[in-house]
Amino acid sequence: KSTVILFSAVIAIGIGEKMWLRFIPKYLEVLGATVFIIGLSDFISTALAAVYGYPGGIISDRFGFRRSLVFFTILSIAGYLILLLFPAWPAVIIGMFFFLAWTNLSQPALFSYIGKALPDDKHVMGLSIISIVNRIPRTIGPIIGGILIGSFGFVKGIRIALLLSIASAITAIILQNKITIDRPVAHVRFNIKQLWKSLGANWKTLLMADILARFCQRIPFAFVILYVINNMGVTVEAFGLLLAIEVISSMAVYIPVAHFADRMKKKPFVLGTFIFFTIFPLLLMVSKSWWFLVFVFVIRGLKEFGEPCRKSLLISQAPPSAVASSIGFYYLIRDLIVSSGSFLGAWLWSLGPTYNLLTATAFGLLSIVVFIVGFREKNG
User: Fold this and answer.
1) Distance CA 187, CA 341 (A)
2) pLDDT score of 314
3) Can you tell me the distance from the alpha carbon of 203 to that of 211, in angstroms, rounded to the nearest whole number?
4) Which of 50, 216, 248, 304 has the greatest number of beta carbons closer than 10 A?
5) d(CA 265, CA 276)
6) pLDDT of the residue at 303
7) 36: DSSP letter
8) Tens digit of pLDDT for each residue in 261-310?
9) Are 216 and 334 in contact (CB under 8 A)?
């Protein structure tokens, strides 16, 4: 019952957030922000994913799932209110410190829940199910948001979506308070130095390869919507549909991959993820038609091919009494480094989209090489 309630809360807050979150770069442009302000917003998004992950894990380990998730949701509501009351680009920048709380602070808690609730040979399947639940809002939200923005314009459409987000978040708080199964308070404490020493060479290789792959993603990330709408003439409603297609392609592979990955070595599946990261910017650069663009966003969705396997490897190598803290530590290192890719992406975009997309591809190729050479998996 608690798991069903938790998943329902994830869907509720997710649908509200995803109606407008992926449209933020274009919204900033409409509000008069420059390309470097758009790059700044993407930097903040990535940096907060880093900075929030570790304390999010500590809070979850210390206070349990239920109280932590309610607190994270309240922080997000504060961010929604800032955007709703002040339709100006500085308010978006300030609001990000609040409305990104749920996305970034809650992730270690959700991973830790799976690690505690399921045996090792079911981790990939459990993480795949959570990934599917997370992506239901990513499918529905952008379509609703695209319709609202297309009908009422960017400013009014986003504000209507924000009102719906607040209602969804309040619903999520009600649901989260009904969770009866919670983690016991963790008494063992780890500092960063102890955590680093407790993690092996494979964990560190995976971290390095993932950093390179996320540079591949981050460099063009904030500018994909600008490329598709401004350069290719696609409507905002159609872009929302492309985002939904991306998520559906992700969801389609989760269960089949999990079925085999829990019985096999996980390295080939994680490698598949890095390959799909790498080819997306290259394919986007050569897109000339709507149907080829659909194919490109299917490929973008398939970057999730091995993500549950990667997360399973993180859980299996974490100290049992500090799983959430260890996962938060991983994201602290990864996203703090990758956040610089937002400014690199903005500079490359100012030179031209081709520079941006080719550089992203180069980082993806490096991630593949590092992972193949450095990661040694002994057990399935």
Assistant:
1) 37
2) 78
3) 12
4) 216
5) 19
6) 87
7) H
8) 667 788 888 999 999 999 999 999 999 899 999 999 999 999 888 887 88
9) no
Residue 37 burial (CB count, 10 A):
19
Per-residue pLDDT, 343 = 86
Closest to 216 measured CA to CA, from 114, 6, 365: 365
Q: Dihedral (C-alpha) 314, 331, 215, 380: value to the nearest 10 degrees? A: 0
Instruction: Give the amino acid at 331.
Output: Y
Residue of 153, 150, 111 lying closest to 130 (CA atoms): 111
For residue 218, the SS3 value is helix
Is there a contact between 156 and 264 (Cβ–Cβ < 8 Å)? no
306 contact partners, CB below 8 Å, separation of at least 6: 257, 261, 266, 268, 269, 270, 271, 272, 273, 274
Whether the CB-CB separation of 240 and 362 falls below 8 Å is answered with: no
Q: Which residues of the chain have pLDDT under 50?
A: 380
Tokens standing for residue 154: 């960017």
* Angle ∠(294,295,301) on CA atoms, nearest 5: 90
Cα separation, 124 vs 137, in Å, equals 21
Task: Tell me the two tokens of residue 15.
Answer: 């649908």
pTM above 0.85, yes or no: no
Burial bucket for residue 115 (CB in 10 Å: 0-12, 13-18, 19+):
buried
pLDDT of residue 201: 81
Question: What is residue 131's predicted lDDT score, i.e. its pLDDT?
Answer: 76
Q: Which of 120, 84, 136 is nearest to 380 (CA)?
A: 120
Q: Report the alpha-carbon angle 49-120-128, nearest 5.
A: 50
Q: 128, 254 in Cβ contact below 8 A? A: yes
Longest dimension (CA), the chain: 57
Report d(CA 337, CA 216) in Å as an integer. Answer: 13
- Give start and end residues of each alpha helix (H) in 177-304: 192-198, 201-221, 224-226, 236-261, 267-285, 290-301
Q: Are 319 and 190 in contact (CB under 8 A)?
A: yes
What does 52-121 look like in DSSP terms, one character per residue? HHHHHHHHHHHH-HHHHHHHHHHHHHHHHHHHHH--SHHHHHHHHHHHTHHHHHSHHHHHHHHHHHS-GG
